[in-house]
Amino acid sequence: MDVVVIFNGLGNQMSQYAYYLAKKKVNPNTKVIFDVMSKHNHYGYDLERAFGIKMNKTLLIKILQIIYIFSRKFRLFKSVGVRTIYEPLNYDYTPLLMQKGPWGINYYVGGWHSEKNFINVPDEVKKAFMFREQPNEDRFNEWLQVIRGDNSSVSVHIRRGDYMNIEPTGYYQFNGVATLDYYHEAIDYIRQYVDTPHFYVFSNDLDWCKEQFGVENFFYIECNQGVNSWRDMYLMSECHYHINANSTFSWWGAWLCKFEDSITVCPERFIRNVVTKDFYPERWHKIKSC
């Protein structure tokens, strides 16, 4: 039995769920579980909050969750056919991992961020990731209508906060990738193709953003906080063009964009000093920044 594990924040959960949909196409018996140890990361299980995707709570799923927790602590589970299969650290697409796993219980743990992982089920993915409407959120809906009516809308995602506090010895160095120079170059690139672009800024450090970019043709989205942070991605996806951070959050905001003539700009790397050749779609414009 193949089991895809959901964990971390919304962007990660979406990539993992998309991978599950692709694996299920190959092996209809594939299951998906939420790692309960991850419920305190970010805002817990966000797929239901954003898209109404409920996690199955059958007895089988609960048993699979328990086995997963204990298999991480006790190696003896390997002797009875319980395995954890990891994605490569640089997120390279691995066709072999799309095949049905060997006998036993195979837990697939990774980000699975390359669209090559789910290129066989794009319609299923887009259908699954249809944002829930927010009829009673006036400020959010005002921004939604503004962006939908703006053919020159550009989402700008700037992630600081947690990215600024990463231990310098760790593998996942997300800081120092989407630099200020990167954003200035990305903005200049968009201006080559869009007359009078309007930049809608989404960030966990809007004060810093305002200091760097000012207010002329820049608009700062402040209405989506805490458990409602997912709504930033909704607004991003409605923008015509995109300037991404090295983040799965804006990755999905751009990927879900419905405009065929859309332009997405992203950093060349996802992790500083690590080549991630499959992370970003080939059609996106990549800027070398580190």
UniProtKB/TrEMBL annotation:
One of its GO terms (molecular function) is galactoside 2-alpha-L-fucosyltransferase activity. One of its GO terms (biological process) is carbohydrate metabolic process. Gene3D superfamilies: 3.40.50.11350. Keywords: Glycosyltransferase, Transferase. GO terms for cellular component: membrane. InterPro entries: Glyco_trans_11 (IPR002516). It comes from the Bacteria. Signal peptide: none annotated. PANTHER family: GALACTOSIDE 2-L-FUCOSYLTRANSFERASE, L-FUCOSYLTRANSFERASE. This is Alpha-1,2-fucosyltransferase.
